[in-house]
From TrEMBL:
Catalytic activity: 2-(2-carboxy-4-methylthiazol-5-yl)ethyl phosphate + 4-amino-2-methyl-5-(diphosphooxymethyl)pyrimidine + 2 H(+) = thiamine phosphate + CO2 + diphosphate; 4-methyl-5-(2-phosphooxyethyl)-thiazole + 4-amino-2-methyl-5-(diphosphooxymethyl)pyrimidine + H(+) = thiamine phosphate + diphosphate; 2-[(2R,5Z)-2-carboxy-4-methylthiazol-5(2H)-ylidene]ethyl phosphate + 4-amino-2-methyl-5-(diphosphooxymethyl)pyrimidine + 2 H(+) = thiamine phosphate + CO2 + diphosphate
A Pfam family assignment: TMP-TENI
Keyword Magnesium: yes
Residues involved in 2-[(2R,5Z)-2-carboxy-4-methylthiazol-5(2H)-ylidene]ethyl phosphate binding: T137, G138, S139, G167, I187, S188
Its job: Condenses 4-methyl-5-(beta-hydroxyethyl)thiazole monophosphate (THZ-P) and 2-methyl-4-amino-5-hydroxymethyl pyrimidine pyrophosphate (HMP-PP) to form thiamine monophosphate (TMP).
Pathway: Cofactor biosynthesis; thiamine diphosphate biosynthesis; thiamine phosphate from 4-amino-2-methyl-5-diphosphomethylpyrimidine and 4-methyl-5-(2-phosphoethyl)-thiazole: step 1/1
Free-text cofactor note: Binds 1 Mg(2+) ion per subunit.
Protein name: Thiamine-phosphate synthase
């Protein structure tokens, strides 16, 4: 499964921090109903056995909605459940090594903060880039902020699709208009909301507006 630009419009990253008694499965389903176009399963605390179980279930759910499903960082789990791909950060495995393990047909996303990192990731076989944090964010304590000028420069420097991540909300999303990105990745802007489906629907509409502005 290759990465299509339109699949990256509204990229939802899971976070069990916001579960509040609900299941991750039901939250992801709500996000999909609301129009999320891509799902990344991000688990920092779960043990392998439960992570594997959860990954299998969410993969099936994404298949039903015909939305790409990738795993954050964990290449082994992605292989085990036959996920559509993996997203890796700069401190994780290098894109070329990930490609060697996953094979030619899987999607590989790479986090980048600079033009150099972006160009390098593209050369190493990344299919798309997640660039950020474009706004201050509480989801990742170590997230460096990326200026909107750098975001534009990255979009110009590479041919692969670029999505922005970090602190994006319905209040600030339109500030990203004209940057060259093809979508946004969000965590709390969807999963921290009481009505996840409605939050996803509203964000999707705004993102469509932003990328065509």
């Amino acid at each position: 499964m290759k990465c299509d630009k339109k699949d990256l419009l509204l990229y939802a990253v899971t976070d069990r921090h916001w579960l509040n008694g609900r299941t991750l499965y039901s939250q992801v389903e709500e996000a999909l109903k609301g129009g999320a176009t891509f799902i990344q399963l991000r688990e920092k605390e779960l043990d392998e056995e439960h992570f594997l179980e959860e990954a299998k279930e969410i993969k099936e759910l994404c298949r039903r909605y015909q939305v790409p499903f990738v795993i954050n960082d964990n290449v082994e789990i992605a292989l085990a459940v036959d996920a559509d791909g993996v997203h890796v950060g700069q401190s994780d495995m290098e894109a070329g090594d990930v490609r060697a393990k996953l094979g030619p047909d899987k999607i590989i996303g790479v986090s980048a903060q600079t033009v150099e990192q972006a160009v390098m990731a593209e050369q190493n076989g990344a299919d798309y880039l997640g660039v950020g944090a474009v706004f201050p964010t509480g989801s990742k304590a170590d997230a460096l902020e990326v200026s909107h000028d750098t975001l534009k420069a990255i979009c110009k420097a590479v041919k692969i699709p670029v999505i922005a991540i970090g602190g994006i909300s319905k209040e600030n999303i339109l500030e990203l208009s004209g940057s060259g990105i093809c979508g946004i990745a969000v965590i709390s802007a969807i999963f921290a909301k009481d009505d996840i489906e409605e939050a996803a629907r509203e964000l999707r509409g705004l993102t469509e507006k932003m990328v065509t502005a």
